[in-house]
Amino acid sequence: MEDKFILDACCGGRMMWVNKNHPNTIYIDNRRVEKGHIQKGYNPGHEVNPDIIMDFRKMSFPDKSFKLVVFDPPHLTSLTESSIMRKKFGGLNPETWQSDIKRGFNECWRVLENYGILLLKWNDIEIPYKKVLYHIPIKPLFMNITAGQKALKQKNRTYWFCFMKIPMFAKTNEGVEK
Ligand SMILES: C[S@@+](CC[C@H](N)C(=O)[O-])C[C@H]1O[C@@H](n2cnc3c(N)ncnc32)[C@H](O)[C@@H]1O
Fold this sequence. Notes:
- By secondary structure, the chain is α/β, with parallel strands linked by helices.
- The chain has a single domain (6-172), classed as 3-Layer(aba) Sandwich (Rossmann fold), CATH 3.40.50.150.
- It contains five helices and seven strands.
- A seven-stranded mixed beta sheet has the order 3-2-1-4-5-7-6, covered by helices on one side.
- The protein is globular.
- The site of S-adenosylmethionine has 19 residues, from loops.
């Protein structure tokens, strides 16, 4: 484990990774699906092949195991079982998404070292990011501000939030805006 100091908490098809097999990273997801699972001829190379099948709401890693955690959970509640988006990115349970995201974030936080970085990715085409942050007990340091008006028109509404586990705040949640 010593050389595995980065965690991708829901890796999916690792589409965002430059090196999809980064040697210092553990990739987890709650499913495994083989190439060709989407639809004939559509994204034929897409697969979900985590190192470990694990639920981000209940991880089996010890506390403070990673220096960097990236959390890119599903962000849509309205997908049908057969939709291509669900096959690629998974879906949120409309009844429980708030607690699922909160539990996932709390687990990512728990397994993060002190002074470690947690990156949350959220596309708010359906659920505004402020609603998500409301359920997260820690305040981000900063976010990308490129998803402004122009981006909204272009439907490019992906936000990245950067959190640092500063021990004082991690213990007390001081500085958290509700
Ligand atoms: C938005 S996709 C991740 C996309 C990925 N970052 C990429 O670059 O391709 C979200 C992933 O979260 C996974 N997921 C959903 N619920 C999960 C859970 N409870 N635990 C672990 N993974 C989960 C889904 O299977 C899906 O692959």
